[in-house]
Specification:
Layout lengths: L1 H55 L4 H33 L4 H18 L1 H15 L8 E4 L2 E8 L3 E5 L5 E5 L6 E3 L5 E9 L5 H17 L12 E8 L4 E9 L4 H18 L15 H16 L5
Antiparallel strand pairs: 1-2, 1-5, 2-3, 3-4, 6-8, 7-8
Length: 307
C-alpha cells in the first residue's frame, strides 16, 4: 500500500508539472500543422485560379501547354516551401534550435555536393528547361535517345511515354539536345518509289491530285496547312527512283496525314496500272561464256534421240 501511495503521489506530481507543458506543445504543434495545411490548400487554390485565368486569356495551344507545365512545377514548389517552413517551426516548438542544424546542413551540403553532382546538375538543367520553354506537357519530343509524349516535367526529370506505352524517366542532366515534333507546325515527308520506266512528271501529277483530294476532304482539310510541296527526285536506287514531297500539317498530325496520303496514292497507282518497284537483278554474261552456252544449247537442240 505504501509503494502504491508513493507511486500515485509521484504520478500526480509529474502530471501536474508535465501535463500543461505537453498540452501546450500539442496545441502549438497542432496549430502549426493546421496553418500549414490551410496554407497549402490556399496556395493550391490560388494557383488553380491563376491557371484558369491564364488559360482563358489565350487560345494558343502552345501557350496553354507552357502554362500547364509551369503551374505543375509551381504547385510542387509551393508544397515544398510550406513543408520546410512548417518543419522548422515545429522543431523550434520542440526546443530544437534550427541554427545548428542549418550550420550542420551547410557543412554536410558541401560533402554531399561532391557525391550528388548529378542531382544538382539535374535541378539546374530542369530550371533552364522550364525557363526557356524547351519542353512542355503534351509535346512529342526526342531526348536522350528516347522518343515519346511528355507526361510530366519537373526540376528533376522528364517523363515520356512512347508509342508502345513504355514510360521513360529521363534526368534533366542527361538532356543535351531536345527535338520537338509538335511546335507550331509539322511536315509530313513522303518518299515515293517509282519504276525506272514510268514517267516521273506523271507521278508528280498523281501526287498533286491525291493531295488536292485530301485538302477537300473534311476529315483532313483542317489538318493540312498548305499545298503539296514536291522536292523532286531524291535518289536513284537499285530498282526504283525515289521521289520526295511533303505536306505542312498541324502539330502531331504529320503521321496521320502521311499514312493516308500513301494509302490513297497506292490506290491511284493500282487504278492507273503503275507498278510498285521491287528489287530486280539483271544477269550479264561474258561473251566467251555466252558463246559457249549458245553452242551447247544448239548441240542439244540439234542432237537426234537414239533408238
Amino acid at each position: 500500500m505504501t509503494d502504491w501511495a508513493h507511486a500515485s503521489a509521484w504520478l500526480y506530481t509529474w502530471s501536474a508539472e508535465r501535463l500543461p507543458l505537453l498540452l501546450d506543445l500539442t496545441i502549438r504543434l497542432a496549430v502549426i500543422l493546421v496553418i500549414a495545411w490551410f496554407l497549402r490548400l490556399l496556395a493550391r487554390r490560388a494557383i488553380r485560379i491563376v491557371h484558369a485565368t491564364l488559360r482563358n486569356r489565350t487560345d494558343s495551344i502552345e501557350d496553354i501547354k507552357r502554362i500547364d507545365t509551369l503551374v505543375r512545377v509551381a504547385r510542387y514548389a509551393a508544397s515544398a516551401v510550406i513543408v520546410i517552413i512548417a518543419g522548422g517551426l515545429a522543431l523550434s516548438v520542440l526546443g530544437i534550435s534550427v541554427a545548428p542544424l542549418l550550420a550542420t546542413a551547410g557543412v554536410a551540403g558541401i560533402a554531399i555536393g561532391f557525391g550528388a553532382q548529378s542531382l544538382v546538375k539535374d535541378i539546374f538543367s530542369g530550371f533552364f528547361v522550364l525557363l526557356e520553354n524547351q519542353i512542355r506537357v503534351g509535346d512529342v519530343v526526342s531526348i536522350a535517345g528516347r522518343d515519346g509524349a511528355v507526361e510530366e516535367v519537373t526540376l528533376r526529370y522528364v517523363r515520356l511515354r512512347d508509342y508502345a506505352g513504355d514510360v521513360h524517366f529521363i534526368p534533366n542532366g542527361e538532356i543535351n539536345v531536345v527535338t520537338s515534333r509538335s511546335r507550331e507546325f509539322s511536315q509530313a515527308v513522303m518518299d515515293i518509289g517509282a519504276h525506272y520506266r514510268d514517267n516521273v512528271d506523271e507521278i508528280f501529277e498523281l501526287m498533286r491530285a491525291v493531295a488536292h483530294d485530301m485538302r477537300t476532304d473534311e476529315r483532313y482539310a483542317g489538318k493540312i496547312l498548305d499545298d503539296l510541296e514536291i522536292a523532286g527526285v531524291e535518289a536513284w536506287d537499285g530498282s526504283s527512283v525515289t521521289l520526295r514531297a511533303r505536306l505542312k500539317t498541324l502539330p502531331l498530325a504529320q503521321w496521320e496525314i502521311r499514312r493516308e496520303f500513301l494509302r490513297r496514292l497506292k490506290a491511284r497507282f493500282d487504278a492507273d496500272g503503275l507498278e510498285i518497284p521491287y528489287p530486280q537483278v539483271t544477269l550479264s554474261l561474258a561473251r566467251e561464256t555466252e558463246a559457249a552456252l549458245s553452242g551447247h544449247a544448239s548441240r542439244l537442240i540439234g542432237a537426234k534421240p537414239t533408238a
